[in-house]
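pinging the channel bc i need a second pair of eyes. not urgent but kinda urgent?? the chain im working w is below, pasted from the shared doc
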Amino acid sequence: MTEAAVGPGRAHPVRAARYVHRIRAGAARAGGVPFRGLRLPPVVADSLLPALLLVGATTGRASPELPVAVALTAALALPLLWRRRAPFTVFGAVAAAAFVQWLADVQLPADVALLVALHSVAARSGRWRALAAAAVVEAGALLACLRWAADGAFLTLFAALTATTVAAAVLGVNARTARAYLAAVRERAARLEQQQEQQARLAVAEERARITREMHDIVTHNLSVMVALTDAAVHARHRSPDRATGAMRQISETGRQALTDMRRSLGVLRSGEPEAERHPLPGIAQLRSLADQMCAAGLPTRLDLRGGHTHVPATAQLTVYRLVQEALTNTLRHTPAGTRAEVRVCCSAEAVTVDVTDSGPRAPLPRAVPSGHGILGMRERAAAYGGTLWAGPLPGGGWRVRTRLGLGGTGEASA
């Protein structure tokens, strides 16, 4: 239980589940009785001692002493039925009955009720009330020893009663501490479980957003390329059948590539599929193939790669590829024929700068309002590496998308 109690407050969802399981197991062990089916209801448990004391008072006594003994025993024992709800009040009633017993000079086994009442006060009340109750019991022990101790046995009897009083008080304080600790452990278990659920929901939302971005980039880009190639094949089918055939083959290859990317992004690619379909995620090295694909679709694209990219993490390379892919797809969709595009990627030890421009007309309307999923997805991808995406028209005409991805986790965007 100690290991679970001192576990980290902010845990991974799987680790949090383990801590919750350990805390709950410790709480079950701290519950006391190993077999929960044998635990008696509180009312029954509180009634056992008074009943036993009353039965004991009716046996072993002469008839003249019996009514007094039963009455005093009832005064000492019956208040214990309410010791859980009003421990300090019950202790006062029991102490008053014990004082009456002392005045009547009657010795009873029911005096153990004082110790039970003291234990209840220590277990369910504050420190000062417990000390006051212990002092009252100690004073009663002194009075009892002064009246009923045999010759020469005063110190022995008083030491024994004092030890019993201290034991009852200490056990009550320990019970209160254990109950408070158990409540804290249960609260911690509930808090960790809630934190685990929140982290799971955040992970699901993050994964959903990632899949949405990937699907948007894959579907939008490949469908745009396929539409452009289809238009080119329709126009060239009579004048240049060879070009039409090449365009149709390119359409088929683009469709297969789109299906492969979708399987990979959704995580459902099975191990039994051909090895050619399980190629790595696209990165900076695949930008050349992307540029060639855009050229085949009717968008002449010039690629300028500066600096080595072998040190760039695979996830950052995928981000660069998707940013360039989305920017070129927007140019292909929203600019007229004859538009040219230029891609510049500069890699350094600290960052990767991506700059995509085209020569389309000034401020084309469909791209002037950056409210679609494409621009939003690019901004989210750039933000994951500390970058701020800039997308907008150029003063002399055309469109520009620029961002800077930090490779150290603290990269700043540069517009």
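so The chain has a mean pLDDT of 76. and The first strand starts at residue 301 and ends at 306. — does that match what u expected or am i reading it wrong
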